[in-house]
Amino acid sequence: MAGKRVWNKRIASLLAGGYFVLSTTAVFAAPVELSLEDSIAMALNNNPAIKIVQAEKETAAWAVNQAKSAKLPSVDLSHSSQRRDSGAGIGVGNSFSNGVSLSMPIYTSGNLEGQIEQAKLGFQSSDLEVEKTRQQLKLDATNGYFAVLQARNLLEVNRQSVDNLTAHLKNVQAQYAVGTVAKSDVLRSEVELANEQQNLIKAQNTYDLAVSSLNNVIGLPLNSELSIKDDLKYQQYDLTLANSIDYALTNRPEAEQAQLAVKSAQQEIRIAKSGNRPTVSAGANSGWSDSSFPGDENNTWAVGVTASWSVFDSGLTKAKVKQADSSVNKATEQVRQTLDSIQLEVRQAFLNLKEAEKRIETSQVAVDKAEEDFKIAQVRYAAGVGTNLDVLDAQLALATAKTNYIQAMYDYNTSKADLDKAMGVAVN
């Protein structure tokens, strides 16, 4: 009976273990299938960077309302309750008072108008910042996507190299067994295979890192497995360098932001100069006071207009104007600097694109010839007219040619993405 209980416990334990395995297997998520368009869309929806600039844009919108409110009427209500001893034998008494006042600026010599205009310019700049961030996220997602494709292709090249060297080693060992080759051929082939296995381990790690980086950009858990639908492709780019630069100068958000910064600095001059000019405001107030709560007797009121003009401020306004002038000069130079930087970015991306385009054709030819050379070297070695070194060199040349082709395709696609970003191509 005791033995039966032990046996039942063992069965229950095995079943529980099996259930645990099945349960943990069931929760493993399937690889997420992604196209390039999917990656970009997820980055635009999930990345914290876009949420940050959208919040900043909302803040800028409220700043406009805040600036506008300074020109509108404001109404204040007040109430005071006191119990006090007035002295002189009068004794302790209560006093209650209420008041309402209204004030409104009539003329501020451009001060409030300048602040409102600055707030509007800030909102426009924040809107451009959103578009700039969208373009950057598109670039990050695109480069991350292509990095996964490149790593995946290079991983396959390393696997093929390991397979080729494994098959070659078996051939060498078979020939050594019948005494047709020297022991050195076996040892050299084993060393080359071990080295390539090391490269395969590194290539797998590079792929895993590329997947994690893309997951980070598009907002997935870093350990998510991805199934990439596309491959590195070549699509001819038709625009000239001059056309690309002209497009960039017209459409880059940074160019317009720099112009807005100049306009904002010019408004700062307007605000500063208002210190030397008069201001006019209107006001009205009414009050009630009584010795009994709530103090609604003894009504008083007043309506008036107040004008003020600072005729001497020890040079404060002059200093502010000079400071604002310097800000305009700085912003103007930053416009020129920004436009120069944009042109340089476009030129670099365009030239990199064309350079990679040329490498694609030559590297494809090299791959074809390297594959043929490797096959010939294998046949010659099997026939006893070639050397082990010929096969190993041909394998290395084949792997190098494939790697160069993949690198050229990756450089072309990422350079095209860089060029779109440098030109300020809008994100749909």
Automatic annotation (TrEMBL):
Task: Note the Pfam families from the entry.
Answer: OEP
Among Gene3D superfamilies, the record links this protein to: Outer membrane efflux proteins (OEP)
Compartments where located: Cell outer membrane
Kindly list the GO molecular function terms attached to this UniProt entry: efflux transmembrane transporter activity; porin activity
Per UniProt, the keywords (alphabetical) are: Cell outer membrane, Coiled coil, Membrane, Signal, Transmembrane, Transmembrane beta strand, Transport
Q: What's the chief localization of this chain?
A: membrane
Q: Which residues form a coiled coil?
A: 339-373
What GO cellular component is one of the record's annotations? efflux pump complex
Signal peptide limits: 1-29
Q: Which family does it belong to?
A: Belongs to the outer membrane factor (OMF) (TC 1.B.17) family.
State the name under which the record lists this protein: Type I secretion outer membrane protein, TolC family
